[in-house]
Design brief:
The structure is a homodimer of 357-residue chains.
Chain A: E1 4-5, E2 9-12, H1 20-24, E3 35-40, E4 59-63, H2 71-82, E5 89-94, H3 96-111, E6 120-121, E7 131-135, E8 149-152, E9 157-162, E10 170-173, H4 183-201, H5 208-225, H6 233-250, H7 258-269, H8 273-281, H9 289-301, H10 316-327, H11 330-337, H12 341-344, H13 347-356
Parallel strand pairs in A: 2-10, 3-4, 3-5, 5-7, 6-9, 7-10
Antiparallel strand pairs in A: 8-9
């Protein structure tokens, strides 16, 4: 039993972004107070910046989200911010990678040290800088979760800074911000919610509040992705709510089989989290038969094409690397299959699954 | 669009109460620091007190919940606490009346003045004393809501201190604490969740997050009250979660027809909120036909007997008083029936409904 920290305050609705100045009146006390904006680089050339209440004291940084966040990347951003006065707020505007970057930078600014020092569970001693999350993509749940996932290339692992201090203080949930997301990305990211809720509810571990959040998030993703226009204004708002609920569930539940295999793809082939999840979910008929069939229906309904054959004809060493990078995730695998999961997930079985991807 | 404040942290599970000392390590810094326990008087003679980490510096007060909280009662409790040092935490242990009392006292201790000064919306300027809620009854949602409802006899109204500062900082959700609730009270209180979620989802006003919370809470209450043993350990935990979710929804939604009629009963006949709701829901077939039938099924399944004929053969003045105390609640009535609700809820119609109670 663990004390569950929740996001302190959120504002939901089309146009919510316009209220950002109101959300800053508490932390910003003088015109000297610095707010740091970390914005997904896809917005570099758009009109988003003009809609933000940026003052001369503030700093706007674009986060390159071509690859997932790394501990080195987070350290570099933080180093650039250590010279000036401590910011009074860090605002992340983007998808999961940007939101996670904002959470990590906020914690590092007050705690010192390097990002890798805090990868793990409850290693962050002090609250970070006041942080606001503004998702522009829905599905990862990063806006609601108590972690920020970073690749650590030195240690060859992908691990989050799991801490109550990682939770955003405030969220702006404005579905207008997801209006221009390409269909593929909208689908892949949205499916992250579907997938982690499926995994959680099929697992052995139970937490009633997490189950409730997961069930509701799952219902919403079904409504969205089994309807004709998954990107209608109504569905975009629904997906923003589903992502928040799914993210709220994560802290009190475990994922299952999809995330470990997806982490394998991510570690060995640098495939992004959400695409990796979809590639795995696509071939999960032996473990989640009903949900895999439903996933196929949703995929086909929206004409989403997944790359195929990514893991065919690899070397034994590569299959071994994928296997190792998958079965290292013991907690979710035990949640899915029990303590004896290694007797089911043999090298042969795991290789067979990757070959079907 | 309003910034939604949520409960900061919660601990859920059987036996969670034993972790209360851990939840107090932050606010309590020295042995001189005072924690105030406001406990429902039904626990006066039980073993509950022995399970609490009460120190010599602390104060334990029993709250008489025979009647619902009044502004005078809250002022009296607060006055008794003003002499000593400002408490570092206020802990409410009980049903909705006790939790609401704890929230009100916490706010008054730091803000000064009288309870009636803050009845309304967003009138509390400063955060209250750190407050922990420990429900021993499930259903009102008081543990999650941003209000604390008090009767104000001088002004002849029943109104809450609606404020972000009214939200508990922490909750202990321990279903073991509801094991000894009498069946009638368990049913009446639990039905509060069912009823306010039914009202909210049938209303004209929509908020997607509130809808999600309400739907999930409604699903849980159906599972609980349509099963044979509504008070099984599993169902008690479910109801604790449902109550929290329903309470989380309330802040972003409006109730409908049941609560205004119930408030009328409460104002004129001092009938408790949850019983009042059930008395009204019992005769709502013209407005919520499916849910009224379902309510009857649940009532009969658990052998719950409602008092009948309470409002038969009253004087015209009494019916007029009930009518006035009902239709004063314009927001929920507009939510339920539209701006034109007075053309539907005439004195005759309203009287007819009360006569059937």
């Amino acid at each position: 039993m663990r004390l569950t920290k929740t996001v302190g305050q959120y504002l939901l609705g089309p146009g919510a972004l316009a209220s950002l100045p109101d959300l800053l009146t508490e932390p910003v006390r003088s015109s000297q107070d610095r707010v740091v904006y970390l914005i997904d680089h896809v917005f570099r050339d758009g009109g988003l910046i003009a809609r933000l209440p940026v003052t001369p004291a503030d700093l706007v940084l674009y986060v390159d989200t071509t690859d997932e966040p790394t501990t080195e990347g987070i350290d570099a951003i933080t180093a650039g911010l250590r010279d000036g006065p401590l910011p009074v707020a860090v605002i992340g505007i983007g998808g999961g990678a940007t939101l996670d970057s904002a959470k990590a930078v906020s914690n590092l600014l007050t705690n010192g040290g390097a990002a890798a020092d805090y990868q793990g569970w409850d290693l962050v001693p002090r609250p970070g800088v006041f942080k606001i999350g503004i998702p522009t993509l829905s599905g990862t749940g990063a806006e609601a979760s108590r972690t920020c996932v970073m690749m650590n290339h030195a240690r060859q692992l992908k691990l989050g800074m799991n801490s109550d201090h990682t939770v955003f203080d405030r969220l702006v949930l404005d579905p207008d911000l997801t209006a221009t997301v390409p269909a593929d990305q909208y689908f892949f990211t949205g499916m992250d919610t579907y997938i982690h809720c499926v995994e959680s509810l099929a697992g052995r571990y139970r937490h009633l509040m997490a189950d409730s959040f997961s069930r509701q998030a799952l219902d919403l993703t079904r409504e969205i992705f089994l309807s004709e226009d998954m990107q209608s204004a109504g569905n975009r708002e629904k997906l923003m709510v589903a992502s928040f609920l799914g993210g709220s569930a994560i802290g009190n539940s475990y994922v299952g089989l999809v995330h470990p295999f997806s982490a394998g793809l991510s570690m060995v082939f640098h495939i992004h989290h959400c695409l990796g999840n979809c590639l795995v979910m696509n071939v999960m008929e032996d473990f989640y038969p009903r949900e895999t069939a439903e996933f196929h229906r949703m995929r086909d309904l929206h004409g989403i094409r997944l790359p195929r054959g990514l893991c065919r004809n690899l070397s034994d060493a590569q299959y071994r690397a994928l296997f190792e990078a998958t079965i290292i995730h013991t907690k979710p695998l035990i949640n899915a299959l029990g303590d004896d999961f290694r007797s089911i997930l043999t090298l042969d079985t795991v290789t067979g699954i990757f070959q079907r991807i």
